[in-house]
Structure formats: structure tokens, C-alpha cells
Amino acid sequence: MSKLDNHLVIMAGGVGSRFWPMSTPECPKQFIDVFGTGRTFIQMTVDRFKGVVLPENIWVVTSVKYKDIVKEQLPEVPESNILLEPCRRNTAPCIAYVSWRIKAKNPKANIVVAPSDHLVTDVVEFQRVINTALQFVSETDSIVTLGMKPTRPETGYGYIQANSYEPSLRNKEIFRVDSFKEKPDLATAKRYIQDKEYFWNSGIFVWNVSTIVNALRIYLPDVNDIFEALLPIYGTAKEQEIIDKEFPKCENISIDYAVLEKADEIFVMPASFGWSDVGTWGSLHTIAKADDYKNNMIGQDIRLYETQNCVIHTTQEKRVVIQGLDGYIVAEKDNTLLICKLSEEQRIKEFSAE
Amino acid sequence: MSKLDNHLVIMAGGVGSRFWPMSTPECPKQFIDVFGTGRTFIQMTVDRFKGVVLPENIWVVTSVKYKDIVKEQLPEVPESNILLEPCRRNTAPCIAYVSWRIKAKNPKANIVVAPSDHLVTDVVEFQRVINTALQFVSETDSIVTLGMKPTRPETGYGYIQANSYEPSLRNKEIFRVDSFKEKPDLATAKRYIQDKEYFWNSGIFVWNVSTIVNALRIYLPDVNDIFEALLPIYGTAKEQEIIDKEFPKCENISIDYAVLEKADEIFVMPASFGWSDVGTWGSLHTIAKADDYKNNMIGQDIRLYETQNCVIHTTQEKRVVIQGLDGYIVAEKDNTLLICKLSEEQRIKEFSAE
Asked: Does residue B49 sit in helix, strand or coil?
């Protein structure tokens, strides 16, 4: 395996509606410095692949309207590697497009597909796992998913059931997948974490470009045909224009449903590298640094009195004083203020509706 | 009594610290459109004297730093009628200064002294009361205070005890004052409102200019001497410079303590014209228009879910969503956000400290 063949695909078309008002359609979660560290989610995603993937092999698939944000936040990524979706069609068309685009450039590419808005705290272990999986897919026709070893009975994630009797012959860390499971209820989630065979579906996939395009040919031929037919125009001046015309014709379908749940050579590599999808304010509350009263605070000057278990994210406020709150989200951005119980955060989409 | 002799003094030097962050040292409460009606407290104060006092007889005493705000908000008041205190010395020096200033212009002036940041809802009754009191002080050497008929056992106001056996000979609505009472505890306040002799001290005073300067000569000679000595320079280019030098020498003392509690001819005119000093967020909650769940809202787009008994004042937010709050103040201004239980609002000074 040559490092020159390693490619990274960052899927950055999400709208992050559960993080309103911090995340807005104009600037969704992946482009936000949620932790106040100076790096946004998508920047941290690129950062953790340093030394694994060369900058010219990093691809970003995003919406047309986020092109400028991506260029600004990821100056190291060549502009021609930023692929623009004219509309949202879930992950399968996105992956079909970028896979053919990469194949046109390097038919031997080994690819990591990663969401743009997740958190990884143990980057050293992350790189070891990624390198192991890349090595594996360079030697086999396998699709590898990364399964996170669960630390709690989380009902907000999908699960991957490994077949523990079938570790792969080449690598004892990698197992054949038995089945994919939808987000479970709490009782099921509790059973999953006792079984030791279930892992959180991280949405991170590793494969060789030939493997994925062959799988797409079989399991999603209509979508595959569109992008295979465009081979002659990739990298030309006509690409965007034709994509804008063809992309909307694609079925709206996830890669999980279209390919992973149907194909044969699907493997899972269980891992632990401090992963979170940071999908909700509550998950931010779980992972972010807290004060002695379990308050997470991001802001310039936040003063709390008799306040506990709150997530306070008010980066544009000069000064915030909160007295007497327990278990609330307080978030302010662009003159939009949300105050809401953490226990009610699943209603944020309702709250943010126009 | 000639209407041409009627003068209005608006005391506008307060800093409104209990209304932080709506009220700030840069723009305190009297200059704010608290109710979202398009008129600030000081503008409403001037408005309610229309037809009673001519614009050229309106005087504003304020801090040097509020000069431009006053000029902007009260364009009808001549600039030379805006008197500027170089420092805060409570109400007695303020009244001594403006009284001599008015006397220099019109020795027959009948004067109403009013705070700049109170609310009056029944302006017709207010004008009747003011005209009655002005008539009374034009015919006698009396100091008249306006006593508000209490509607609840309020512990946030001082009280005036009327001597109900001594209505004045000239006007049966006006009584001799027995005593001034500090803010009472709740038990005392309850006794006061049963006694029918106690009235809220509105801080509105009516007197003839000769009466007040004579009282100042007797009861506050040091302060009086300063401003009496300046008679030759009032209205000249030197006035401000000399005031800046002399004013700081004054004792820091209220007119209530310096004169009203000591002088003889002190009267109270009980009245009811929908008065409030709007001294706290809680008082705003009591008087402002509320929704069915007792929420007061001032803002462009405020959406409440499971929220009651709250005061929400977020004029600079485009959009506010609040879920699950009961009995809180939510106030935002100039990128300063306060969330605080209404029951804890006496701590706002603490919260707002630098």
C-alpha cells in the first residue's frame, strides 16, 4: 500500500438543524468552532488525517452554497477537489459521484469516507485504526465500517452487529458484519451493550475505489450509471454544469441502505478513539469540558449563579449573566436566542421553524 | 395664576441600575422605550405636561454625559434649559441649582418637579391634579407632594402619612403631612393600606420658586448659598464652567431628607392616576400588558413554549425562542444577556458589577 493512494472524502452537505441557533442553514455545524478552540469541525476533520492523506487527495462534497466557506476554512484542499451538489440526495449519490471522480484520477485509490462534523479526541489511535483499515482494503475487496465500542446505552446512534466468530483472516481486529441496526429503544440499547457484539455506526467507511464502484454497479445501477457516464468530463470546465443537470436525477438514498446492508464483503473494525457525532446539544453537554456544577460554557464572559447542568453557547455575547437555571440550553447567535430545557431538545427543529 | 408661570423640572440624572442590562450607565432607563411604544420614559414625562407647561418652561437636570441624549429625545426643550450636573449629589443640590436658575428668569414661577422615569397611565387625571396643585402653591407658601393612593402593600416605596384632620383651608383635596415613612416591611405596609392615611411618595413635588428657595435658605444654607451666589452668571457663557467647579462642593443629600421632613408647610395631595415608578423588572411585570400566561414580552419575534410569569425584553434580538421557564427575567441589550429569577432581581446590581 502506498500512502500516495490514500484519499479522504469529507461529506459536508449537512444542515445541522438540531444545533439551532448555533447551526443555521447559512452556516451549519460542520463550519462552526463549537468548542471555541479556533478550529471548526471540518477543520478538525482534516487535521486528524495529517500524515495519513496528502492534501491533494482530500475531497470535500458539499452543497453549492457552502463552496466559499469550504475554500476559506480549508485552504490546503485544491479547489478542484471541492465537489458541489446542486441539491441534497443523501449519501449514496454523493459517494457515487466522488468515487468516480477519484477513480478518474487514481484507479488504485484507497478511500476513507468521513462525516465533516464529528469529534475524535484520541487522534493517535484514530490514525492507527485508519491506517489499519486502509491497509486491509488495499489487500481485499472489502468494505470496512468503523464501529465504535459503546460506552453507554445510546439510543441516538445506529448499531453494527459484528459476527465475532468471523474475524477476517488478514486482520484479527476486523470482523464480518452480521447486520446493521436502526436506532434502538433504551431496553434494546441496554441489551446491545451487554452483548459485546454491537458497535455504534460511526458513518466512517473505508474501501478501495474499485470495490465501491463495483458495489454501486450491482446495488445502485441507475445512480452509478449517471456518474460512470461522466468519466470523460471529470476535471473539465463542463463538469459542474453537467453535474447540476444530472445530479438531481439521482435517487435520494443513503449508502447504508443502498449498499452496506445488501453487499457481501462488509466488515466492521471495532475501535475506541473518543468519538462522538456531537449530534445534539445534549451530546455536547456529555463531552465538553464542564465546571464543577456540570455547566458547559462557550462565551467571552459568562457568569453563573445557582446554575447547573446547563449548556451555554453564546459566542457573540459580550457578557452573559444567568441565575437559577438547571438543565437548560442557552444559545445565542446572530441575534437569535434559544432558551430550552435540555430534556426538550428534540423539539429544536419545531422551535427553529420559520 | 398664569400658565406662563408654570415650570416643569425633570430630574434625569439617574442610572437605573436595577434595570440592567436594559438600562446601562451609557443609556439609563429614562432614555429607553421600555414598552416598545416609540416613546421613552423622559419623552412620556414631557408628553403628559402638554398644555400645562410651555416647552420653554421645561427644565431638565441631568448628568453631563446625557446631554446629547436629552437634546435628541427632547428637541422641544431649549438647549439652555438643559442643566448639567458634573457629578451626582442626589436631589437637593439638583433642585437648589434649577430653582435659582428658574428664579433668575421668572421670580413668580410655580414649579412641578418630577422624576424622568416614571409611568402615568391616566394623563387626564394627572393634569387635573397637577393644575390643582399649581393653583394651590401659587396662592400659598406651601410645598405640595403628590401622594399616590396605594393599591397594594408595596414595600418598595416610601410612604407619606397625611393628617386627615387637617385638610387645607383652600382645597379639601390637599392635606397637611404628618410624617414621611421609609420603605416599610410587609406587615407595616399592610397596616398602612388599611389606615387610609398613608400614600406612596411619588417623588413629584409642586411649589412656588420663592417657597423652595426660602426653604433651602433655612434648611440647607450651605448648598443654597452656592447657587444663590451664582445668580449673576446664570444664562451666561460662564455658567457651565462655574457649575462644574461649584457643584461638586455640595452635600450629597435628598430633598426629602434636607427639606421636606423638616419644613413646616408641607402638604400632600392624594391622587390616583395610574402611577408606577417602574423601579424593577418585577414592577414592569405588574403593569405591562401580558399574555394569557402572564408573560410580558417586548421584542420583534418572541416565541414561548411552556413558559409563564416571565418578563422578556429583547429588543435587539431578531428572534427569541424560550421553552420551559416560569418566573424569570430574560433581557438582552448590546450583546449582554441576563437570565434571572424574578424573585432574585434585587441581586441585579451584584450581577451587573464589572
From this structure: coil
**Is the CB of residue B347 less than 8 Å away from at least one CB of chain A?**
yes
Q: So what's the ipTM on this one?
A: 0.82
Check B317 against A336: CB less than 8 A apart. Answer: yes
Q: Which of A57, A53, A51, A62 is nearest to A41 (CA)?
A: A62
How near does any CA of chain B get to the CA of A301, in Å? 10
Say which DSSP state B259 is in.
I
Q: Are B339 and B317 in contact (CB under 8 A)?
A: no
Q: What angle do CA B178, B139, B256 make, to 5 degrees?
A: 35
Q: Which pTM value belongs to this model?
A: 0.84
**Amino acid at residue number A100:** W
Answer whether A224 touches B (CB < 8 Å): no
Which grid cell is A186?
433504551
Cα separation, A224 vs A214, in Å, equals 9
User: Does any CB of chain A come closer than 8 Å to the CB of residue B332?
Assistant: yes
Cβ partners under 8 Å of residue A209, min gap 6: A7, A99, A102, A103, A106, A107, A108, A109, A110, A111
DSSP string, A299-337: ESSEEEES-BS-EEEETT-SEEEEES-BSEEEEEETTEE
Contact between B141 and B153 (Cβ < 8 Å): no
B159-167/B319-323 β-pairing = unpaired
Q: Tell me the pLDDT tens digit for each residue of B225-276.
A: 999 999 999 999 999 999 999 999 999 999 999 999 999 899 999 999 999 9
**Interface contact flag, B323 A347, Cβ < 8 Å:** yes
Interface test with B, best of A319, A329, A354 (most B CBs within 10 A): A319
* pLDDT tens string A187-239: 999 999 999 999 999 999 999 999 999 999 999 999 999 999 999 999 999 99
Run of H or E including A122: none
Cβ contact A323–B341 (<8 Å): yes
Instruction: Judge whether A22 and A313 are in contact, CB under 8 Å.
Output: yes
Give, for all 354 residues of chain B, the pLDDT tens digit: 889 999 999 999 998 888 999 999 999 999 999 888 899 999 999 999 999 999 999 999 999 999 999 999 999 999 999 999 999 999 999 999 999 999 999 999 999 999 999 999 999 999 999 999 999 999 999 999 999 999 999 998 999 999 988 888 888 999 999 999 999 999 999 999 999 999 999 999 999 999 999 999 999 999 999 999 999 999 999 999 999 999 999 999 999 999 999 998 999 999 999 999 998 898 888 888 899 999 999 988 999 999 999 999 998 888 999 999 999 999 999 889 999 999 999 999 999 987
Please indicate whether, in this complex, the C-beta atoms of B305 and A341 are within 8 angstroms of each other.
no
State whether residue B336 sits within 8 Å of chain A by CB: yes
Q: Do A336 and B320 touch (CB under 8 A)?
A: yes
Answer whether B319 touches A (CB < 8 Å).
Answer: yes
